[in-house]
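Fill in residues.
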C-alpha cells in the first residue's frame, strides 16, 4: 500500500492506479460479506486480515519493480508501464478471497 501511495504522488496516472486499487478492495469486501460467515465478528476479522495479507505481497512486488524507476516516469505512458504489475493486486485479492470464504464456511457458527 505504501508503494501505491508513493506511485500516486510521483507517477503520471498514479492516482488512477490508486482508485482502481480501492475499487477492487471494495469489491473484495462486498464479496466477502455475501456469505453468512462473512457477516460475523470473526468473519469480519478474517476479511480484514485477508485484505492486509493481499496487500503485503502486492506492495512488495510493486516496490521491487517500480520504486527505483518511479521518479523517472514523467510521461502519460507511465500508467501503461504500471499496468502489468497492477495485475498482482487482483491476483492476490482473488486468492485471499477464496481462502477467507473457505475459512468462513469451515468455521461458520
Amino acid at each position: 500500500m505504501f508503494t501505491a501511495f508513493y506511485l500516486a504522488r510521483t507517477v503520471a496516472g498514479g492516482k488512477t492506479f490508486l482508485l482502481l486499487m480501492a475499487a477492487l478492495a471494495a469489491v473484495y469486501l462486498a464479496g466477502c460479506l455475501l456469505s453468512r460467515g462473512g457477516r460475523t465478528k470473526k468473519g469480519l476479522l478474517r476479511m480484514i486480515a485477508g485484505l492486509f495479507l493481499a496487500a503485503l505481497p502486492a506492495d512488495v512486488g510493486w516496490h521491487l519493480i517500480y520504486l527505483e524507476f518511479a521518479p523517472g516516469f514523467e510521461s502519460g505512458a507511465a500508467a501503461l508501464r504500471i499496468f502489468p504489475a497492477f495485475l498482482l493486486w487482483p491476483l492476490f485479492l482473488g486468492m485471499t478471497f477464496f481462502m477467507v470464504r473457505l475459512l468462513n464456511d469451515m468455521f461458520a457458527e
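The chain has one domain: 2-106.
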